[in-house]
Amino acid sequence: MSTLNFTAWVFLSSLTAGLLGALSGLGGCGVPVLTIFFHVDIRYAIGASLISVIETSSGAAAAYVREGFSNVRIGMFLEVATTLGALFGAWLTAKISTPAIGITFGVVLFYSTYTSLRTKRIRGSAVPDRLACRLELYRSFPGESGQEDYVARRVPVGFGLMFAAGALSGLLGIGSGAVKVLAMDQAMELPFKVSTTTSNFMIGVTAAASAGVYLSRGYIVPDLAMPVMLGILVGSVAGSRLLMKARVRTLRLLFSMIIVAMGAEMIWNSVAGRL
Amino acid sequence: MDANRQQVEVWVGHMLRYGVLLAAVVVLAGGIRYLHGALHHSSSEYARFRVMPETPRTIPEICARVRAGDTQAMIQAGLVLLILTPIARVVLRFCSTLVRDAWALCLSRLRFLN
Fold first, then answer.
1. Left (φ > 0), alpha (ψ -120 to 50) or beta: where does B10 sit?
2. Minimal-distance CA residue of chain A relative to B83
3. A142 touches chain B (CB under 8 A)
């Protein structure tokens, strides 16, 4: 395939991925698209995907901050855990085999699709912990009936889960928003909107930490990352414009099915030794 | 969130957007020049990982090769700008907190002296 053809096809598929990602709120399909359709080594695919993760997270952060949902203090505190995790994950990529990365990727895709479709929340009866009060991890957010107060709970569990989220991000080149939301929404019992927006706010820094390691190892190649970056940018901007008119629920379901199929394909290819 | 802090967050949000835009412009410019030069070449082989000597991997190396007119290094420079954008956000936020705390401390000392 000529360079021009290769670049054009990667650009078009990234544009589609960015468009569907913005419309459905689901991500993580950059790596499977590059490995399954373009037979790119998973390490190069992860490098290019990290670039798109930084891009979408940074592009959307301005809107989230303005809405007043994201808690920057909690975000900055938990970023310590995700950044350390990301550096660990990026280090791990060179140590474990490609099929192992592929299988982990497939499982994480299944999990994130499951969490994005689930609406019911399971709540414990934990009390606000002393650590959260000492670190001032509390605030209020614009709820349905005016400003609603909240305080973080189980801070050490949330911090540990965030380390795991960072490690997955560094290992797989994804934002791992699903695990970040799990840590904040389920473990720390923060309001759902605060969890999702704060998670998005943090994703860019986590990905930047791992991208630095990937760049220094030569996993980020410019001629592959260029069409991915530009395609995702055009796709996500177009997607956010179309969001008002689209039937989001149907799209979300359809895209979830595609992601599950790609996850299954990645696991199958890893087991069959084709990855 | 107080008004000042909200204002800082809005600035930081804008900085993130402009950082992404600037990075995209640099990558696009490098990409156009790269494609123009490699129009009829066959694409590189990415099926198996190997360290490619033509890929610049450190910031000094990228800068040196951009000055020498290397188009791949120019794309890489755009990617580095993108990677630095969220890091700059953390630094800015950290500095704004330091300034705010120092200002609050000064005000409290002044009140104490009065």
1. alpha
2. A208
3. no
